[in-house]
Write a structure and sequence with these properties.
The protein has one domain: Winged helix-like DNA-binding domain superfamily/Winged helix DNA-binding domain (Arc Repressor Mutant, subunit A), CATH 1.10.10. About 35% of the residues lie in helices and about 30% in strands. It has a two-stranded antiparallel ribbon with strand order 1-2. Strand 1 and strand 2 form a beta hairpin. The relative contact order is 0.18.
Amino acid sequence: MTIEQLRHKFDLEDKYPRSADLKRWIIEPAIKELNVKSNYDVHYRTERKGRAVHKIWFYFREKSQLQMDV
């Protein structure tokens, strides 16, 4: 997904013009919350075009559940 597509989906076209700000204030907190509160381990990777971040990939992996001794 391109950064422009991500901004459009979250209605952020006019906010966070720098990708570093988008990462700091939107992406990182959301991933941190998902990792704590969900059953998934989430991480992402970015691709640059020149010096600018152009694309972002999100990866979701289901967390393994530990068995409890009863």
